[in-house]
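Shipment paperwork, digital attachment
Item: protein structure file
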Amino acid sequence: MPSFLTSPQVAPILLLLGSNIFMTFAWYGHLKFRSAPLLIAIVASWGIAFVEYCLAVPANRIGAATYSTAQLKTMQEVITLTVFVGFSTLFLRESLGWNHLLGFALIALGAAVVFLGK
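Attachment content:
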């Protein structure tokens, strides 16, 4: 594995990306299976969320060596929106309008402001 992937600058981003993929499936994946009993959806989501935590906790531990907590949280939110856009369109087959994309872009712009001071 290339060493830059394990650096304290890049590893948290990759781990947060992985954790957000799992979390998005945990939170929204069951919507594709609405006929499944709610209890099954809850238990399955909880199991998926466990994997998310196994990635998110190390991401934040490693990332704290390089990034502030506010920067880590901001990264997580931008990654969440990015993953959600892909998930929503590819997995749930829902379309996103210009207003969704503009709103997400404004959030990303606001997130960039968090990184200006460092």
